[in-house]
């Protein structure tokens, strides 16, 4: 295939992935709606005429139709399968993008490519943790986030494929960016758990037998533990990206380990916030609301570093991230 054909395939695959993500979102929203329907085996009290006796009656689905529980289970399986298909199309888009360059390279050459890669890692992270932590309740949040960011990338960030700049043409690109993007995806998933902790804490624990989305979200203690575990995994990976591989690559490219570049500074601020989060939990016993708020502060600094620096900074050596050859989370 020619380079132009690979680029066309990549663009088509991104469009296909977005479409399938949208279908997955609709399926999971339908699942949410089904969760609010009465359970098929719910016992209703029917007051007899005259008011002297009450007879329990069990609601059953008509013959040939699924009960609400069966409908929820079916939609859940369909939604998971649809996300897997979308992730496969997403992967094809990334491979096609790298193959379209001459010479072939990793698909992290500009802001558009890194955004597409970052959203792919969020999806893969969700699928990897799906069964281990029973994350079916997180599906519409993850899909909605990935779909929104992909739309932003396609509409506003898209750039034609070009070769890497000299500074980026290094094997440290792979080492540094892989670690940074894995940490970013994990921090984002942990942030979703922290957001739902605050939402559920404000709404209160659902009553026994309640239906709806919040009834399916794990309890506050489980959400708090999930957020902590994901952040504890992401932090050393982010440390490796920010404090080890980034400075080494910066020295190779610019002959200095640290340049006080705005993106470097904000990456370090993100590291400090998450270090404070883990330290507070380990030594001061911070759990629950305070820990969730601090985790979201870290997520805000992470995403500001991801996008904001490229738009609001005029002195950053990473300003080329707005043009074709660039990498968003290069924090050398």
TrEMBL record:
Q: What is this protein called?
A: Heme exporter protein C
Q: What NCBIfam families does the database record attribute to this sequence? A: cytochr_II_ccsB
Keywords for this protein: Cytochrome c-type biogenesis, Membrane, Thylakoid, Transmembrane, Transmembrane helix
Q: Which residues are in the Cytochrome c assembly protein domain? A: 110-312
**Gene Ontology biological process terms, A to Z:** cytochrome complex assembly
Give GO MF terms, alphabetically.
heme binding; heme transmembrane transporter activity
Q: How does it sit in the membrane?
A: Multi-pass membrane protein
Compartments annotated for it: namely:
Membrane
Q: Quick one: where is this thing mainly located?
A: membrane
The similarity comment for this entry is:
Belongs to the CcmC/CycZ/HelC family.
> Which cellular component terms (GO) are annotated to the entry?
plasma membrane
Q: Where are the transmembrane segments?
A: 12-35, 74-99, 111-130, 137-158, 170-199, 226-250, 265-284, 291-312
